[in-house]
From TrEMBL:
Keyword Oxidoreductase belongs to the record: yes
Protein name in the entry: Rieske 2Fe-2S domain-containing protein
Domain Rieske: 9-110
InterPro entries the UniProt entry points to: Cholesterol_7-desaturase, Rieske_2Fe-2S, Rieske_2Fe-2S_sf, VanA_C_cat
Upper lineage: Bacteria, Pseudomonadati, Pseudomonadota, Betaproteobacteria, Burkholderiales
Pfam families: Rieske, VanA_C
Source species of the chain: Hydrogenophaga atypica
Keywords per UniProt: 2Fe-2S, Iron, Iron-sulfur, Metal-binding, Oxidoreductase
Keyword DNA-binding set for record: no
Length: 342
């Protein structure tokens, strides 16, 4: 298995998708099976019976236990074997590994590392998600055929929207506006302001801005796999750059990335906004985000294909790469720290 940060909370799947049925998932090159207990708690186990390595996701749920579909060995929600058909003695090593889980922001989060370090209070949370003055809309689980750090590069990079997302998130007014970046505790922050310029199509459509605006992008990348993009717009000259946000349209585009393996990741995305909207408007806004993220998917998969085809090719670095480079160093440091502790 290639190096991943393990002692961290990863998003695994939408809570809405986990019920009283076994479901198989892959994360950091490991396979897990999920289900809910009768009391509603999410259980995550290694998706392999220790007898013949039969995937437990192909078995049956019996109460709160999984019965292996090959020989009927049954494991309770702690991973302990509680039944072996045809014998009463249960070997001490008849145990399946389980993983800590937690639910927040509509997602099931999983801890793939040392379970004694799994502090559920450290699961990522965005306060506005719970604020009744804001509204949150769940999006999709977008599978992308690329390494998750390539997606992370994209989510540390405001500059690409001026060229990739001209129908939704960007316009030419920002092409030459500098990008700023700094490393904070466990994260990389990237930002820029575009002052006295036309609104991007998304805000022109839903914010009904008629004249020029002041707009901002703050990309918060929480290593190793969470990106929160705070972007908004206010009529130019009304004080937004100085901190006045009572007359603006503001959206948090949230990206929670599941690293599947070296060639795949899943982007669980949702948006949180400072206004209420009808179901029709929410659906239309989600459709516009879906369009934009499909554009990212096409680019990232094309890049990944060329990386696989030209593994020895070294790419050049330019000024806008500073945030992605800082992000990758931060992830490398986390991996190195875990290796050193081990």
């Amino acid at each position: 298995m290639s190096p991943y940060v393990l002692n961290t909370w990863y998003p695994l799947t939408w809570s809405r998708n986990v019920g009283r049925a076994l479901s198989a998932h892959q994360i950091v090159e490991q396979r897990v099976v999920l289900y809910r207990t009768e009391a509603g708690q999410v259980v995550a186990m290694e998706d392999a019976c220790p007898h013949r390595l039969m995937p437990l996701s192909m078995g049956k749920l019996k109460g709160d236990a999984i019965e292996c579909g090959y020989h009927g060995m049954t494991y309770d929600c702690t991973g302990a074997c509680v039944r072996i058909p045809g014998q009463t003695q249960i070997p001490g090593n008849a145990v399946v590994r389980t993983y800590p889980t937690h639910e927040n922001m509509g997602l099931v989060w999983i801890w793939m590392g040392d379970p004694t370090l799994a502090d559920r209070s450290k699961v990522f949370d965005l306060p506005q998600y719970h604020d009744p003055a804001w509204s949150a809309v769940e999006g999709d689980a977008l599978e992308i055929g690329a390494h998750y750090l390539n997606l992370a590069d994209n989510l540390c990079d405001p500059s690409h929207v001026s060229f990739v997302h001209l129908s939704t998130l960007g316009n030419a007014a920002s092409e030459d506006v500098p990008v700023h970046s700094e490393v904070q505790e466990g994260k990389v922050l990237t930002w820029r302001w575009i002052i006295d310029a036309p609104p991007i199509p998304l805000f022109a459509k839903y914010g009904h801005f008629k004249g020029n605006v002041d707009r901002w992008h703050y990309y918060h990348y929480h290593a190793p796999s969470i990106a929160i993009i705070d972007f908004g717009t206010a009529d130019t000259g009304t004080g937004a750059p100085e901190g006045r946000r009572d007359n603006c349209m503001q959206i948090y585009a949230c990206h929670f990335i599941t690293p599947v393996d070296q060639n795949r990741c899943i982007d669980h995305w949702l948006h949180v906004k400072n206004f209420q909207a009808s179901p029709e408007v929410n659906a239309a806004l989600s459709a516009d985000f879906r369009t934009a993220f499909a554009e990212d998917k096409a680019i990232l998969e094309a890049i990944h294909a060329n990386e696989q085809r030209m593994p020895e090719r070294r790419t050049i670095k330019i000024a806008i790469d500073i945030s992605p480079r800082r992000m990758r160093r931060l992830v490398d440091d986390m991996v190195g720290s875990e290796a050193g502790a081990a």
